[in-house]
Design brief:
Layout: H1 2-18, E1 21-25, H2 29-37, E2 41-44, H3 51-58, E3 65-70, E4 75-80, H4 85-97, E5 100-105, E6 108-111, H5 112-120
Parallel strand pairs: 1-5
Antiparallel strand pairs: 2-4, 3-4, 5-6
Helix pairs in contact: 4-5
Length: 125
């Protein structure tokens, strides 16, 4: 019986890890920061991403942001309705709902929270 529970636990763990994806940014770190000041964020999703999959998760966040999805390039552009830090956190939830675990900028990969701290957090400048 213990063996059965261990097998189920291990299978669920492997499946949940296997579903995590990495999105990329075509912008440099400095360009991301410039765009963030304008309230614009852009991510390129994996090739298998569909309009339907983006719509299915984005529909829960319509009071927080608008978005466009280019089906050819798999690029998602996100624009906050009210550019507040809490709305930017909602954008992270959108990414998480799409199984995103990392965002690659240049050669560096960021976990979601690290990406938020590095690029999305409002600066008091």
């Amino acid at each position: 019986m213990r063996h059965l529970f261990f097998t189920i636990f291990l299978t669920v763990g492997v499946l949940s890890v296997a579903q995590q994806i990495t999105v990329t940014s075509n912008l440099s770190a400095s360009d991301i920061k410039k765009e963030a000041k304008l309230g614009h964020f852009q991510w390129v999703f994996p090739e298998k991403t569909t309009l339907e999959s983006i719509q299915n998760t984005a529909k829960y966040y319509t009071s927080s942001f608008t978005y466009t999805f280019n089906e050819t390039t798999k690029t998602v552009d996100v624009y906050p309705i009210n550019d507040a830090e809490e709305v930017r956190r909602v954008m992270l939830r959108f990414l998480g709902a799409n199984q995103v675990s990392q965002i690659k900028v240049g050669e560096e990969s960021y976990e979601l929270w690290t990406y938020f701290e590095s690029f999305m957090k409002h600066n008091k400048e």
